[in-house]
Design brief:
Helix 1 crosses helix 2. This protein has a five-stranded antiparallel sheet. Strand 1 and strand 2 form a beta hairpin. It has one domain. The chain is built from eight helices and five strands, in the order H-E-E-H-H-H-H-H-E-E-H-H-E.
Length: 200
Amino acid sequence: MNIYRRLGLSFYATATAGHAARHTTASFLRSSFCEQRYTISTDVSPGEDDTLFRSRLLTIWEGLSAFPKTPRWEKTLSSKTPEFWLSQIEQHTAKHFKTILSSHESPTISLLESLEWSDTATAAGVYLWVWKPRRKRTYHDSECYLYLGSASKFGAGLADKRRALLSTWPSTRQQPPKPQMRSLGMSPKSKIVTLFEVPF
């Protein structure tokens, strides 16, 4: 399960960076024009959707495979074929996020916010936290940030991670990535959605 969660985080940090935003810093993706509204094209057939999605997964896999890996990662990944790992990633990708990655158009912030949240304690996963500014005083205040993270604590899963992220208790104030959120002037009430889910 842990290898699937880590693979999912690597894949969707890469996929979202390439498909939705123009600037990346660590787990953050900055996207301009929060208020733009577009719709995803529906002129792509289901078969073409699957082909495009798998083609993008393969491209990301090939790109990530070129990076240096620890001996443990090298051994684990080489124990199965790329086709096996890609099929597992596809299987656990949230349905609506898969639709976005199968589209010929880039998603808007409002579309990403429309994705569902899986409030489960019985699954690990990868989530996307859409950060919007607290207030807009200048042009740059219209920019949003996307934060990608993972939840893997056994028996707590995605549900517990979301509670911790949205908690207003003083003891949680310095828990990452809350200090970064405050420094960027983003609202703590921003939307969190599920991208990838793997049962424990």
